[in-house]
Design a protein that fits this description.
about 100 residues; alpha+beta; 4 helices; 3 strands; about 10% strand
Length: about 100
């Protein structure tokens, strides 16, 4: 969930291993790794902004678009609906086009 809206649902192991929504990718890329060798290979998802929006006045369209590194015009204009993708449901206009992110 991001600012009160579901962004991705599915089997826990699958969405944690290969998240498709940019927010979930960013969230999981920020989790510390206890192994120093693996930690050096891990790259966080580069966000457009580190500012968190006011939850009482969420952004138009996709609530994550001001921070999303993949956002396009449609993201600011239309709220994405949860739709099927790779055996899960993802609320992202661009989910098929954004790079897949893998947990290490």
């Amino acid at each position: 969930m991001y600012l009160g809206q579901l962004v991705e649902t599915g089997k826990l192991g699958e969405i944690v291993k290969k998240p498709r929504h940019p927010y979930l990718q960013a969230l999981l890329s920020a989790v510390p790794v206890p192994d120093p060798k693996l930690a050096r290979t891990k790259r966080p998802l580069p966000l457009r902004s580190l500012e968190f929006p006011d939850p009482t006045k969420p952004p138009s369209g996709c609530r994550f678009h001001p921070r999303c590194p993949y956002a396009e015009d449609i993201c600011a204009q239309e709220i994405p609906t949860l739709r099927p993708l790779d055996g899960r449901f993802v609320a992202c206009h661009l989910a098929e086009r954004i790079p897949e992110w893998h947990l290490l």
